[in-house]
Amino acid sequence: MKLSSMKNVLAVTKTVPYLSSIVFAIPFIATAQSVATSAQSAKPVPLSPMPADSNPAFEVATIKPSDTSSPHGTFIRHDGRHLIAYNMSLRGLIVYAYGLHASQIVNGPPSLLATHFDIDGVPDIDGHPNLRQSKLMFQRLLLSRFKLAFHYESHELAAYAVQVAQNGPHLMPTNSKPDDSTNFTISCPPVLTVRNYSIADFAKGMQDAFLDKPVVDQTGLKDRYDFVLKWTADESQSFCPVSPAGSSPDPNAPPGLYTAVQEQLGLKLVSTKAPVEVMVIDHIETPSGN
Length: 290
Hints:
five-stranded antiparallel sheet; 6 helices; 20% helix
């Protein structure tokens, strides 16, 4: 996923307290029109977080093909107790639920995977699910209603590898414990704040949020870290606004993403081919009627 796919501020934490106002930062972000429409609806009564150790499923869920004749954004959000996926392709739903890059999904009927659905469901446990619980709910929905069956294999794919740069990493180990909350937050101009993340976590976050290929960790680093990464977006990375054509460049602006990773973190993003775990779809079908 390219930075051009990102239109909203990303804030992903391990302990998201509730999701009523969050549009998930996945390759499918609501358009301004769809966000405005959502804002005009009545505000739901705030709900308490779902117990963190809960493993919810959808108690009931309505699934229908998206109306292709109407204006479309794409998002996953909460509306009171309802968890809603709007105009999500089936491939996109799998990407979200299982934390994959689209290229990590192998086989399956292309026309069905490209079909967009609207899903509106209620969890079987009271409270707002966190991000892990939301993904689990959609995993279970895919298994039960779309009859998804799959297995994992390792395939060599075009990917980015996170590697240690020549002069070694410039990273400060976190003071947090492994089970403490984590944070992966982006604001504009591009400033990424990371707390209590391993480099494998960082690679996964970059894959989910910014880059157009799978990202693998080849650093061998095992600690967890806190750091801030600042860069200047180019025209292909329009998560944040770029300077208009003809404007004078800011001499104090940070470098581009790849240079920033090397200079500020002592790491590098290398375009390569690498073994990547892929989901091989053995069976999937149009969902059962509601």
